[in-house]
Amino acid sequence: MTTPRIALSIAGSDPSGGAGIQADLKTFHALGVYGAAALAGLTVQNTQGVRDARPVDPAFVRAQVEAVLDDLPVAATKLGMLSNAEVAGAVADLLDERRADFGVVVLDPVMVATSGDKLLHDDAISVVRERLMRQADVITPNVPEAAVLLGTGPAVDATGVIAQANALVAAGARAALVKGGHLSDAQVTDAFATAEGVAILSGPRIESRHTHGTGCTLSSAIAAFAARNGDSPQTGVRLPSVEQARDYLMRAIDSGSRWTLSRTPTLGHGPVDHFVDAL
């Protein structure tokens, strides 16, 4: 008998399947870990944008997570869209009470969808900044999200991305991966900072409209590789897990760039190919 490595996603939904918990579960499965999920928010969205979003009752979010933790030995947890301050606070409270049961924690501070639609209430930002960021083993904001968390203007170049990552660690994050995909450079530069220093991860930009759910996919891939690689709350999320997750995402974007899914593919943002490695 064997027990597979288990990863848990606490995040919002995407009925079109490209982002949120649906993308997280696809990523977990594609990368060889058993995926569990607790819904923290519901959305009405597709590749064209978000039509509506509603939070799940905080007590019900907590009950979902407790049901998983009481039964399954979770090696890694990904936190995604947490909707509002009440939901984010309920998750933070449970982390305070049962931190060891969550395994490695990867925080993707989802604030705005690829389409530009807002997914996090303003009142939740302080919970993310003051509590969840300090409880997580790594936080994975994009450039605009990092700017909100730091209360500064967004980075405009790779040097700014590096500075944001270092600033988040100085502000209390154990590790920060700031993603430079929002910049327009031919090279996409991400910065992974810890108290020991910063690693620069760079590669050519893949021109594609299929970028829906890239942040969800990357953060869940980090959780999956952290679980597979034996990263723990003691070690934190280590650089190889981040590098492997980033490589997986780049290949998924490249493969998805050749898809046509939407009835109007030139107007929205399609998903990546989560099963790029499947036979």
From TrEMBL:
GO molecular function: kinase activity
Catalytic activity: 4-amino-5-hydroxymethyl-2-methylpyrimidine + ATP = 4-amino-2-methyl-5-(phosphooxymethyl)pyrimidine + ADP + H(+); 4-amino-2-methyl-5-(phosphooxymethyl)pyrimidine + ATP = 4-amino-2-methyl-5-(diphosphooxymethyl)pyrimidine + ADP
Domain Pyridoxamine kinase/Phosphomethylpyrimidine kinase as annotated: residue spans: 14-258
Keywords: Kinase, Thiamine biosynthesis, Transferase
InterPro entries xref list: HMP/HMP-P_kinase_dom, PM/HMP-P_kinase-1, Ribokinase-like
One Pfam family recorded for the sequence: Phos_pyr_kin
Pathway annotation from the record: Cofactor biosynthesis; thiamine diphosphate biosynthesis; 4-amino-2-methyl-5-diphosphomethylpyrimidine from 5-amino-1-(5-phospho-D-ribosyl)imidazole: step 3/3
Alphabetical list of Gene3D superfamilies matching this protein: 3.40.1190.20
Function: Catalyzes the phosphorylation of hydroxymethylpyrimidine phosphate (HMP-P) to HMP-PP, and of HMP to HMP-P.
Entries under NCBIfam families matching the protein: HMP-P_kinase
Protein name as annotated: Bifunctional hydroxymethylpyrimidine kinase/phosphomethylpyrimidine kinase
Gene name for this UniProt entry: thiD
